[in-house]
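Incident log, structure service

09:12 report received: a user says their structure output differs between two submissions of the same chain.
09:20 pulled the input from the user's history:
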Amino acid sequence: MKNTITLLACFLSLNLIFGQTKEDEKAICCIVDDMAKAWTNANGAGFAQHFTEEHEFFVWNGLYTSDLTKERNAQMHQHLFNTSYRDTKHYAVVDKIRFVTNNVAVVLVMSAVVPKSDPIPEHPQVLWSATLVKSDGAWKIASFHNADIEILDNAVTRSNSPIPISVMYKSWYEADLN
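09:34 re-ran on a clean worker, output below:
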C-alpha cells in the first residue's frame, strides 16, 4: 500500500511538472499560424492579438520596444503592412516548443516573408523565438525576438556552415508550405 501511494504521488508530481498537453502544443502552433495569416492578410490587429497586454518586442534590424502594448504593436505592424511589407506573404514553421513550466513556454519558429507573387522560398530567412505565458487557459506572447539567418544568404556561407543547413533547418525543409 505504501508503495502504491508513493508511485501515485510520483505520477501526480510528474504530471504537475510536465502537465502540458497536445492541446497546449496545438494552441501555440495555432498562434504561429494565426500570426502568419494576419501578416499575409495585412492585419495588424490580427498579428498583435496573441501578445500579452504589455510585452517585449525586438527584431532583426535592431528595433527594440519594451512594455509595448497590443494596441501599439497592431499600429506598428499595420504601418509595416501598408508600406515596407505591402503585398507580402509570411511563411512560418514551428521547429520546437519547450515548456519551461506549466504556464511558460518558448517556441522556435523558422519563417520567411516574400512578395505574394513570388514562389515559396527555398530557405527560411528569419528564426524567431517567443516566450509565451498561459493565463486563464490561453497562451499569450510575453516576449518576441527574431534574427536574420545570414548563413543562408548565399551558396558560400551555406557551404561553409559548420553544421549542414539541412540539419539545422530540417523542420523548414520537411514542411509542407503550400
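09:41 both user submissions now match this output. Likely a transient worker issue. Closing.
09:42 reviewer note: The chain has a mean pLDDT of 90. The chain has one domain: 20-174.
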